[in-house]
């Protein structure tokens, strides 16, 4: 296979997709500049639950891509076995005790895919994965997935940027938002709000929830289902919970230093309001209710205290599937836009850099091309 003539790339966005792609390109000898409107990981990557999984039901190509993503994290974990920012202590999930409970169906589906799963009744949980109050688990039981884990994306991005810099990559921050420069129908670089211009053979847009609007400026439509997300980080707590919990009212993920990250769609819907100036108002009563829900499902029902709150768009394409690869209508223009940014973070960088350097389409990305939204 003969590589196409690519010697330089500009990446807009210093979240996990942008930084991962930058490192992979730099490893291939490409000159890379990453542009970010503020410090690295200041967007969706800084407020992600970052649960590494492929549980429940989704398309087969998406499942395979997520499993490849988890595989890359296992390789990374083998290189950093004592780290506190990447762990594989499993995931535990259950549904509400109502007619919509799908735990039995989800378990059968996971078993059919050979996805490591255990269907547990409440009394079994303590012996399998400690730190959970079993009274919160309904009669239909819960699923424990031993192979799942979590990553702290800001810490991972920091590690990747160290390698990126050592390979000669350049990170440019705090020059405002950037736009893609398209001349004569081709992407030739990017320009920041401050006026700085960076030319390159290829441009990657990896700006999380801002991707659809940015590509729309070039006449390309990407379906966008981005909601507002709310992530609460707790203060350190001495507690035995190590698995990620995904429950009807809250998702809980252990974090470095004995802290926990909390996420719930209802809390974002009820507790966050967009102000006219683009900032967010947060309802403290809703946040306190989220803390109470979390305490209720944790062993000992501990008192949780807020360390920080992150609010902003959660990148989700209109059809829920990743959008990765070249914009065929504009040569030299590539995008990475997806939910599950943590799970896909390393594999997307690897596959996207492969496509940029070789000019070949990777078969694992076949169903995730931007062109599927062309009729919108």
From TrEMBL:
Residues 10-354 form the FAD dependent oxidoreductase domain. The chain crosses the membrane at residues 6-26. This is Glycine/D-amino acid oxidase-like deaminating enzyme. Pfam families: DAO. Gene3D superfamilies: D-Amino Acid Oxidase, subunit A, domain 2, FAD/NAD(P)-binding domain. It comes from the Bacteria. It comes from Rhizobium paknamense. The keyword rRNA processing does not apply. The keyword Cell inner membrane does not apply. Keywords: Membrane, Oxidoreductase, Transmembrane, Transmembrane helix.
């Amino acid at each position: 296979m003969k590589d196409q003539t690519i010697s330089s790339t500009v990446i807009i966005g210093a979240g996990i997709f942008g930084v991962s792609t930058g490192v992979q390109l730099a490893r291939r000898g490409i000159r890379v500049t990453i542009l970010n409107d503020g410090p690295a990981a200041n967007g969706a990557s800084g407020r992600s639950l970052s649960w590494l999984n492929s549980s429940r039901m989704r398309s087969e190509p998406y499942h395979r891509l997520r499993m490849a993503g988890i595989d890359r994290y296992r390789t990374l974990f083998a290189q950093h076995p004592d780290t506190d920012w990447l762990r594989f202590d499993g995931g535990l999930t259950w549904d509400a005790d109502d007619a919509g409970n799908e735990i039995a169906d989800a378990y059968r589906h996971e078993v059919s895919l050979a996805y490591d799963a255990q269907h547990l009744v409440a009394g079994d949980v303590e012996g399998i994965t400690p730190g959970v109050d079993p009274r919160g688990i309904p009669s239909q039981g819960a699923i424990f997935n031993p192979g799942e884990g979590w990553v702290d994306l800001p810490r991972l991005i920091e590690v990747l940027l160290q390698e990126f810099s050592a390979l000669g990559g350049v990170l440019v921050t705090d020059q405002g938002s950037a736009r893609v420069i398209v001349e004569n129908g081709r992407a030739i670089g990017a320009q920041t709000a401050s006026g700085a211009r960076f030319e390159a053979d290829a441009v990657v847009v990896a700006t999380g929830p801002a991707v659809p609007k940015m590509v729309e400026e070039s006449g390309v439509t990407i379906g966008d289902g981005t909601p507002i997300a709310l992530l609460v980080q707790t203060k350190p707590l001495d507690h035995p919970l190590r698995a990620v919990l995904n429950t009807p009212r809250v998702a809980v993920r252990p974090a470095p230093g004995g802290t926990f990250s909390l996420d719930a769609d209802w809390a974002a819907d009820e507790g966050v309001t967009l102000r006219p100036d683009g900032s967010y108002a947060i309802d403290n009563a809703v946040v306190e209710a989220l803390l109470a829900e979390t305490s209720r499902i944790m062993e000992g029902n501990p008192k949780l205290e807020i360390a920080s709150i992150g609010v902003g768009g959660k990148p989700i394409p209109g059809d829920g599937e990743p959008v990765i690869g070249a914009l065929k209508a504009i040569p030299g223009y590539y995008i990475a836009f997806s939910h599950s940014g943590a799970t896909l973070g390393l594999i997307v960088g690897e596959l996207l850099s492969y496509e940029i350097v070789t000019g070949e389409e990777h078969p694992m990305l076949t169903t995730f091309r931007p062109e599927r939204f062309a009729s919108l």
